[in-house]
Design brief:
The protein is of the alpha/beta class. It has nine helices and ten strands.
Amino acid sequence: MPLSDPPAQDAEPPEAARLPETVSLPPSSASEQVSRYFAQIEEQRLSRGLLRQERAPRDLPFSARDLEEAFVRIALFEEYSFVGGRIVERATPSSLRRWNTPVRMRLEFGDSVPPAQRSADTAFVRNYAARLARLTQHPVSLVGERGNFHVLVLSEDERSTIGPRLQTLVPGIDSVTLDLVRDLPLSVSCLVLAFSRSGSDHYTDAVAVIRAELPELSRRACYYEELAQGLGLPNDDPRARPSLFNDTAEFAVLTALDENLLQMLYDERLRPGMRAREARPVIREIAQELMGGAS
């Protein structure tokens, strides 16, 4: 999504600042209803054998060919499209996009989020950012200020009034995107939106929105998925298995397949702006290398 040029920023800050001591506000009745809803959803998914936590499940081996196809479907398609002045969920062919500047993730919690949850989530995201940096060989870190990848953990009430804050965090953000975040349906637990300024294929800003009401396993699955997707894996596909990038909620962790997708995404042989036809021979070569030549 194109944006106007951002204001100048100072040098990147040191290690993320410590969270201030805060007292969370009591949840509203609307937020309590959302909490109960997602607790039931998580319980139902677990009872059906979903939200699996194996990184490399033995019952779902994958080949270099599987990896190639998954990369094309997930990295070279967009999950959301503009249709008639609104954003709809529809896979659309796209070009390869990724960051060419350091990714500075910054967590921002609504007042409803308890201090213990803030502390635990901050430690989790800090460790996950370091893991993403190792996989991509690209700078990814959690910072205390001057972020460019904003991770907002908000209750139902807080999200409905987040518009002005989003306009501050991402200058030039459009009204359609603001409406999407504000009116997020219950069918969506979390989402990420990444932006390219001046119409380039390099991401410059991203915003992830995580529902504060989610139970821990579902909330961490959201962190895993949205923070990885915001690096340049924008689509979900039901044929991608074992993978987080699959709307069936089969997995709740970043799998071995997903790790390979991130390695491929930031391989220098692939260039931002490439589309599937041009990129596929390179994708095939990288996939075979990662799988040890096995097809």
